[in-house]
Amino acid sequence: MVVETNRCYHQFLENSDNGHSPEHEVTEVEMFVFLALTLQMGHTVQGRLEDYWTKMEQLRPPFYGQMMAHARYYDILRFLHFMDDNRNGVDRTDDRLWKIQDLIEIIRMNFSKFYNPSEYLAVDEVIVKFEGRIVFKQYIPKKR
After folding, report:
1. For the chain, domain boundaries
2. What pLDDT, on the 0 to 100 scale, is given for residue 30?
3. What's the rounded Cα separation, in Å, for the pair 43 and 125?
4. 72 Cβ neighbours under 8 A, 6+ residues apart
5. pTM for this model (two decimals)
6. Helix (H) or strand (E) run with residue 108 in it
7. DSSP structure string for 29-68
């Protein structure tokens, strides 16, 4: 992820005409912090992405600002990339997750090492309310 994100950033700089001031490349430590912040955002839900770095003392979760500046978070998010070189990529519309397939496989393998579900497992789809449009989710309005 670090290598491909930096490659995407350098490709942007090569094609940029506006004289974008070059930021430093993403390091492994920054990528881990970025991923940790992104995962933590699922636990402390704010209205907008900017709200995690708000200057209002009563609304600001201090964790985010201490870990990474919001400008740096946005820079990494802007150039976040998973697949090898854009120029060699083939658009495969049959599989919408093809760019992150390697990441999904790594996560699946590592999760299976630590969690083995038993036969008494209940999955409840009502855990997270979702009203957006995405292919593999379904919104049922009468469902609580």
Report:
1. 2-114
2. 92
3. 18
4. 23, 30
5. 0.66
6. helix 101-114
7. HHHHHHHHHHHHTTTS--SSGGGGG-S-TTT--HHHHHH-
pLDDT digits 0-9 by tens, 31-60:
999 999 988 888 887 888 888 888 887 777
Q: Of 66, 42, 64, 40, which is closest to residue 52 (Cα–Cα)?
A: 64
Please write down the long-range contacts of 33-42, taking CB distance under 8 Å and 24 or more positions apart. 33/67, 33/68, 34/68, 34/73, 34/76, 34/77, 34/80, 36/67, 37/64, 37/67, 37/68, 37/73, 40/64
Measured in degrees and rounded to the nearest 5, phi and psi for residue 74 equal -65, -35
Sign of CA dihedral 58, 59, 61, 67: negative
CA atoms within 13 A on the CB side of 119: 0
The position carrying tokens 């919104």 is: 139
